[in-house]
Specification:
Blueprint lengths: L1 H28 L14 H10 L6 H25 L19 H36 L4 H15 L2 H15 L16 H38 L2 H8 L4 H39 L4 H10 L3 H29 L7
């Protein structure tokens, strides 16, 4: 398993480099100019010097190589310096945002807690809800619970998150006044009252994303359970006198989790991208809103960094899913 993991990590390097090149070329060919929002009264020679200051005067391959060097070498050095008080970076040039003129990773670090609070919590809640619903729905196929779960799942998966979010705001914020409609990013949890305030403002965005995630995962869980409940080894286990609890939870569930693990693992990076709309609806000042702002302002370094980070998450969680296959099913071996 260790050899397989190392081999996959090595193979991931050219994959990520190719993805980074594609993202960079797409941003390079996309319409728009980082200086488009500057006043028209700026003289052409001053505008040209501003472009050179942003590094836009260099050839594309030089800019791409510089980005890779800063992303994989310079930024980790700054991170190590901040953690251990060393001086590895020695003042090297970091990835700088065109809009804020501040280091991109510093801005991402400021927005990350908001996204993890909302998106991370919603995914955990969605998984914890989806797994038991899928298991019970499969075991009690065509029951009232199964039909109700199917109905809710179809609604949650079919209705877009921006519509669900607006409906919740109208009902629970405007009409009932139970929850705030705008997420307060300045709130700091220091006591019980601030903790309750944090939970109240998280309730609606977490519910919207958790409903969408749980609807998808529960359907996969149900289908996988139904496929394994009809297998010969289940009848053999029952014939040996094993209780239903042991048969379902020990044998069937373990085999059924193998395809579901793929959905859960690959859903983690997708949630960060899919939460863009939900963050816009509830005004959560997270990575999704940061990406939208960067795209609108033609902030190439910020967009490039965020999208490349999402790509790294996808490759990483692909590897995690493959490793978990071997943990759940001893028959799977990686030679």
């Amino acid at each position: 398993m260790l050899t397989y993991s190392i081999r996959r990590l090595i193979l991931a390097i050219p994959t990520l480099l190719f993805i980074a090149l594609i993202i960079f070329l797409l941003l390079l060919l996309a319409p728009g100019d980082p200086l488009a929002n500057m006043p028209l009264t700026i003289p052409p020679e001053v505008r040209e010097k501003m472009r050179e200051a942003l590094g836009l005067g260099e050839a594309w391959y030089i800019r791409f190589g510089l980005f890779l060097w800063q992303f994989f070498i310079v930024e980790p050095q700054y991170m190590i310096d901040a953690m251990f008080g060393t001086d590895l970076a020695d003042g090297a040039q970091r990835i700088i945002s065109f809009q804020s003129r501040s280091p991109v990773f510093d801005t991402i670090g400021e927005r990350m807690p908001q996204t993890l609070w909302v998106v991370g919590m919603s995914y955990v809640v969605g998984v914890l809800i989806a797994l038991p619903i899928g298991i019970i729905s499969a075991y009690k196929q065509y029951s009232i619970f199964d039909q109700l779960g199917t109905l809710i799942s179809m609604i949650g998966f079919s209705v877009p998150t921006f519509f669900t979010g607006v409906v919740l705001i109208l009902v629970f914020s405007v009409n009932l006044g139970w929850f705030p409609s705008i997420y307060d990013t300045q709130l700091r949890v220091t006591d019980w009252d601030s903790f309750v305030a944090q939970m109240r403002q998280m309730a609606m965005p977490v519910f919207v994303l958790a409903l969408f995630n749980a609807s998808q995962i529960s359907r996969y869980m149900r289908a996988s359970m139904l496929d394994n409940l009809g297998q010969d080894y289940v009848r053999t286990a029952r014939a040996k006198g094993m209780t239903e609890k042991v048969v379902v939870l020990k044998h069937v569930l373990r085999n059924s989790m193998i395809p579901v693990i793929t959905v859960i693992a690959l859903g983690v990076p997708q949630v960060f991208g899919g939460a863009i709309i939900t963050e816009q609806v509830f005004k959560v000042n997270g990575l999704g809103q940061l990406l939208i702002t960067a795209i609108q302002g033609n902030d190439i370094p910020m967009v490039m960094t965020l999208t490349f980070m999402f790509a790294i998450l996808i490759v990483l969680f692909n590897l995690i899913a493959d490793i978990l296959y071997g943990v759940l099913d001893p028959r799977i071996r990686y030679d």
